[in-house]
Every structure is written in C-alpha cells, then in structure tokens.
C-alpha cells in the first residue's frame, strides 16, 4: 500500500495552524514570564544579533539546533533543559519563524512552549532591555 500524501498547504496556512496552538505572549507578558522563571530563547541568526543586539538573559540557540538543545531527553541538551514542564518563550526577529519553532518544541513534549508576538523587534520597540551590539 502506498503512503498517503497530504494536500499541499501554504506557509500562511501552516503559520495560522501553528499559532492556533499557541498562547502567544506580548513583550510585556514575556518579560513578566521571564521574571517568573520562563526561559527566553533567541533563535535569530548571528547577523541579526550583531546588527540589533540581544536581550539580557536570553539563551541564544540558533533555529537549526533548537530541538536538540531544548529536548530534556537529548544528549546534546543545554543545562537549562531539565524537564518537559519548562516554560519556554521562543523569539525570532519579527515573530513568524518563532511560532513554527514553538510548535516543534510542543511536539517534543515541551507543552508550555510558546513564542513572542512581534519577536525581537517588538521587544525592542516596547522599550524592554536590550544589550546593544558590540
């Protein structure tokens, strides 16, 4: 018997489906969640961090390593990836790729993973702490 192939869908559809699964946070909500112990994970690539700066205390995990670094069952996990109940807030530059990344973490059992609406740009525009580029 052949494999069942799903109907093609657009990235806009995939993004809408991902966001329907998330309780996305505004920058002030994310800042408060971090104060309460959530892990803020910056998945932006180096050129964007070098251009715009970073968020103090955020873990930098580039997107291509995210699942391996945050899966508590993986040998390559970060020390912070201690259990599946960890509250993780993923951010990218503008809040698009982070939605897809957060759902990928949920699929690994990190059920509290979500993302930051508007990404780093919204965080910065909200006047929240940013370490300028060096």
UniProtKB/TrEMBL annotation:
Superkingdom of origin organism: Bacteria
Keywords per UniProt: Transferase
PROSITE patterns: RHODANESE_3 (PS50206)
Pfam families reported for this sequence: Rhodanese
Protein name: Sulfurtransferase
Gene3D superfamilies xref list: Rhodanese-like domain
Keyword Transferase set for record: yes
Keyword Cytoplasm: no
Signal peptide: none
Coiled-coil residue spans: none
Domain Rhodanese: 34-132
